[in-house]
Amino acid sequence: MDSAAKDKMQPTIPPGSSCPGPEWPEQERAEQLARGAALKWASGIFYRPEQLARLGQYRSREVQRTCSLEARIKSVVQSYLEGVKTGVRQLAWALEAMQGAREALSQAHGLLRGMAEAAQTLEPVREQVVQHKQLWALSQLLPRLRAVPAAVAHTQTLIDAQRLLEAYVSLRELEQLQEETWAPLGGLELPVFEGLGPLAEALGQAVEAAAGAAGRLAREDPALLVAAVRVAEVDAGRTTSLEQAPRDWRQRCLRALQEGLERIHFGTLPQPGPGALAEWLEALRVALPAELATAEALVAPCCPPHYKVVQLWAHTLHSSLRRCLQQLLERPELGAADTFTLLQWALHVYLGPEMMGSLELGPEADVSHLEPLLTLENVEQLEATFVAKVQASVTQWLQKVLDGEAAEWGREQEPDTDPSGFYHSPMPAIVLQILEENIRVASMVSESLQQRVHDMALSELSAFLRRALGILEMELVYQGLGMCKSDHSSSLSVLQPDWVAPGALAPVEAALDELQRRICRLVLEALLLELQPLFAALPSRQWLSSPELLEGVCERTARFCQDFRHVRNPAVQLLLAEAERTVVLQYLRALMQGRLVCRGADERTQAAERLRQDAAQLRELFLGLVRTRWARRWAGVSVVG
Predict the structure, then answer these.
(1) N or C: which end of the chain has fewer CB within 10 A?
(2) Which residues are within 8 A (CB) of 578 and not within 5 positions of it... i.e. 6 or more apart?
């Protein structure tokens, strides 16, 4: 097929048809593809000349197809047009219905406006009707309303006479009359009922007063107590149509019971002063169990079971006592006696068989599960205060004892002796006794306080020994052996019971050992002062030729050691051992520091013999002192020559 035929077969776009512009690139591309496909189809069919004869057939076929499509399109469009027509017709009917409804509503609105105007014209009539009803109600109640003032006065008289049940019945009749007038009068309060509020309050106060004196009334006038409780219970179930707050007399009654107990037993705290706290606690020890017994035997039968009177009594007394003790602790610092009394009472007496733990009290009186009277912080504070006060007293007292003992040491006469002839002073026994007593007293409170006081006692004893050592060093210069009286270490066993950890007494024992060594040193210094002139002559020709020089040393040593007969073991053994060591060392020091020239073998032999004799003489001296100590207890000691 030539190009001219192809151009004739190419479809053309009729004028006025919508051709997509550049703003619709997808549509333009689709048309190009469709045109290309049509050209390709036409080219394929009419490529050979013999097929041109069939062109008319193809044309008629396409005309039929086009007519079929146009018929289908017309059918669809016709169907859509019929639906639109139906919808338009229905919308017209709805519009007519809306207009009818609007007109009906407008007519109803007009009718309602007219009725409102008519109702306003009837408002005065309505008010007249209400007033008429109120006047009719007042006319019916007028005889009873005239009696209200007299009934109020009568009720007040019953309250003053403590006829509480009758007063409550009269009050309720008046309140019921008030309710009957309140509704018909539309909530209008009549002046005649103004006295009911104060009257009800007066009755409530009377109920509270009776409940506050429950313990006394249970013994003297139980009927009054029962009446007060019944009034409170009956009023708890009262209902009213009036706009009034509930009176809640039951709770007021319970509070009055508690406040009455607090006022009786804890109204005033003990004043600061010696023994005041102990007397107050002792009074509570007697009063509180008696109060609980009264509650169980007398008060509980007068009250409903749900009051749980005994439990209420026990809890109230416990909480009030706890609050009072906290107030006491906020005061300035307590003394040692008051601190001990408070600790021992709160920790042992209060829950003990003498008070709240008594077998005579029922299980409802048990307060062991409540908060303790003293918290751990309170106990810690009181124990620290007690230890500090006791320590100050012990320090002051020990200083007085030491001053008195120092005055005894300063006397010119010989110290006191016991029946065995030993020097004796009551000071060690007194010191240890007072310390032991303080520890024993602390053990009555708690183990922690006992441990604290024990530690304080050891500390004070160590300080006491140090102060005693200082005084000894001054006094022994003039008194010689006056201090060597007894051995104190054996008495320390009272300060080391089984519960004390091993080694707790080590500081005190060390102080005692140091004191004993200082005493020995001072005593031996006095001995050396006496022997110094004799040792100054060693060695010499006189010493070499005669034993008189060493005999003088032995004589003075023996005379000096005679005073040791008043000293107990093992202190005397230490003194003798140290005396022997001191004399021998001083003898050897004098020989080593001196100068003696032997002129020949005879003098050297004589010097060796003198040394041997001196050694034997010194050995005999101290062996004799030991034998005499054990044989005759230093009574009538003779000098060993």
Answers:
(1) C
(2) 520, 524
CB 355 within 8 A of CB 347: no
- What pTM was computed for the model? 0.60
Name every residue whose Cβ is closer than 8 Å to that of residue 438 and which is 6 or more positions away in sequence: 390, 394, 453, 457
Contacts of the segment 580-587: beta carbons below 8 A, 24+ positions apart: 580/618, 580/622, 582/524, 582/527, 582/528, 583/527, 583/531, 583/553, 583/557, 583/618, 584/618, 586/528, 586/531, 586/535, 587/535, 587/538, 587/553, 587/614, 587/618
pLDDT tens track for 14-60: 444 444 444 567 778 888 887 888 788 777 777 767 766 777 777 78
Task: Give the Cα separation of 164 and 169 in Å (integer).
Answer: 9
**Ranges assigned E (strand) in 389-539:** none
CA 318 to chain centre: 17
Residue 603, exposed/middle/buried by CB under 10 A (0-12, 13-18, 19+)? Answer: middle
Q: Where are the alpha helices (DSSP H) in 480-545?
A: 506-535, 541-545
Our separate counts of H helices and E strands in the chain read 20, 0
Residue 565: closest CA among 636, 491, 477: 636
Cα 262 to Cα 79: distance, rounded to the nearest angstrom:
101
pLDDT band at 636 (very low <50, low <70, confident <90, very high): very low
Structure tokens at 461: 């004893």
Inter-axis angle of helices 601-632 and 571-593, to 10 degrees?
170
Q: Are 516 and 456 in contact (CB under 8 A)?
A: no
Helix (H) or strand (E) holding 227: helix 222-236
Taking residues 196-209, report their average pLDDT.
Answer: 90
Contact 319, 242 (CB under 8 A): no
Please give, one letter per residue, the 3-state secondary structure of 145-198. Answer: HHCHHHHHHHHHHHHHCCCHHHHHHHHHHHHHHHHHHHCCCCCCCCHHHCCHHH
DSSP state of 363: G
Paired strand residues for 423: 417
Q: Is 417 helix (H, G, I), strand (E, B) or coil?
A: strand
Ranges 82-96, 234-248, 273-287: which has the least confidence = 234-248
Write b or e for each residue in 180-193: b if 16 or more Cβ atoms lie within 10 A of its Cβ, otherwise e.
ebbeebeeeeeebb
Find, among 333, 323, 443, 343, the residue nearest to 392 by Cα. Answer: 333
Is residue 265 within 8 Å of 294, Cβ to Cβ? no
pLDDT at 343: 92
Ordered DSSP codes for 59-107: HHHHHHHHHHHHHHHHHHHHHHHHHHHHHHHHHHHHHHHHHHHHHHHHH
Q: Which long-range contacts (CB under 8 A, 24 or more apart) does 33-38 make?
A: 35/10, 35/11, 38/11
Helices 196-212 and 148-160: angle between axes, nearest 10 degrees: 10
Winning range, highest mean pLDDT, from 126-130, 408-412, 510-514: 510-514
Which phi and psi (to 5°) does residue 499 adopt?
-80, -5
* Distance separating alpha carbons of residues 219 and 11, to the nearest angstrom: 131
Q: Residue 247: name the closest of 177, 299, 171 by CA.
A: 171
CA distances from 191 to 195, 201, 609 (A): 8, 18, 139
